[in-house]
Amino acid sequence: MTPCFSRRFFIIKMNKKTVVSLSIIFIILLLDQWSKMYVKTTFELYEKHEVFKWFQIVFIENDGMAWGATISDFIPRLSDRLAKLFLTLFRIVAITGIGYWLYKSLKSNRNHPFIAISLVFAGALGNIIDSIFYGLIFTDSRGELAVFFPEKGYDELFYGKVVDMLHFPLWEGVIYDQVPIIGGRYFSFFDPVFNIADVAISVGIFLLLIFNRKSSQNAYTSKGVTQ
Fold first, then answer.
1. Across-strand partners of 25?
2. Is-contact 202 122, C-beta < 8 A?
């Protein structure tokens, strides 16, 4: 491989798309990591602060996947610690693939959804930082405020916990008896606690679904016109 070809392969021309993509990633990472570090150093684990009736800051730590699930929930014989390591390694592999997808999208002259991919990449990277490094750079938050960059963290490399804090309890109460199946039951919306990285991933995936739907419709329309 010649030096010229090597540089051409690894360096993305700083066009408008690249600047926008890098700006999105930087802003998401900055807000995500700042919010997590702020909560870790000012809240004890499970501490809650009500901003509005419908919005609360609730400090929890997620040791697994979405909704608090872990790989060991699906593979019972796998220990929680080994499952945690597998999950972190899987996230690294996944974000490598997303990063390559983003790279190809930025190089392409076609109308690729690079903003959506940038959001997914930034969100995934934000949570991976927690999983890889937080066990080393923070002390435990149970019953005390975490210390940033201590002599000894709460765990080893790759065994950090993802910090969540955004909670939107929009409605809770008993559903009318007249409602089929679920009538008379207590229901609350919205229960999950999440973080800014999760928001970026969700918005990015939503935009990708919209883009793919529009692309499919345009392809179908073009096919109908040409036939």
1. none
2. no
Average pLDDT over residues 30-59: 97
The Cα–Cα gap between 32 and 28 comes to: 6
Adjacent-strand bridge partners of 194: 166
- 88 touches 131 (CB < 8 A): yes
Q: Identify whether the C-beta of residue 207 lies closer than 8 Å to the C-beta of residue 131.
A: no
**Active-site choice (32, 140, 155, 164):** 164
Q: List CB contacts of 107: < 8 A, sequence separation 6 or more.
A: 12
Of 63, 80, 130, 198, which residue is the catalytic one?
198
Question: Which residues neighbour 163 within 8 Å (Cβ) at sequence distance 6 or greater?
Answer: 36, 39, 40, 59, 60, 61, 62, 130, 134, 195
Residue whose entry in the numeric block shows the structure tokens 């969100």: 123
State how far the Cα of 84 lies from the Cα of 88, in Å rounded to an integer.
6
Token reading at 80: 């929680």
**Which residue has tokens 């929009």?**
170
Highest mean pLDDT among 15-19, 43-47, 109-113: 43-47
Does the annotation mark 198 as catalytic? yes
